[in-house]
Structures are given as C-alpha cells and as structure tokens.
Design goal:
Layout: H1 4-27, H2 44-64
Helix pairs in contact: 1-2
C-alpha cells in the first residue's frame, strides 16, 4: 500500500514531468496540439505522445537535409 508521502512524491514527479514536456514542446515551437488544445489543458500521457511525435518529426526533417 502506498503511503501519503509516496503518493505526494509520485504526484510531484508527474507535475515536474508535465512542466518539462511543456517547456520542451514550446522550445520546439509547439504551443497548441494539432487538435487545437493548449498544452496546459492536456494529460501527461498526451504531452508524452506529442513530444515523441515532435521529436521524431524533427529527426526525420534533419535526415532529409
């Protein structure tokens, strides 16, 4: 069973990861998702997915130069 302290650490880690992903996406020039939602309005999963897609697109674009 998880303790309150463990749950708090997990919640904090998730929030930190979301902030990191939003910062990285904005650095790549992405401020909204393709469906129009703001980065602040989506789940961690959605941010992770879009981050991976953006990184893959950037790698493909780099390879085409």
């Amino acid at each position: 069973m998880q303790t309150l302290h463990t749950l708090h650490k997990t919640d904090t880690a998730a929030k930190e990861r979301k902030e990191y992903l939003k910062r990285e996406l904005r650095y790549m020039g992405i401020y909204k998702l393709p469906d129009g939602r703001k980065l602040d309005d989506v789940s961690l999963y959605t941010l992770e997915w879009n981050y991976v897609v953006a990184k893959n697109d950037a790698i493909r674009a780099y390879g085409e130069e």
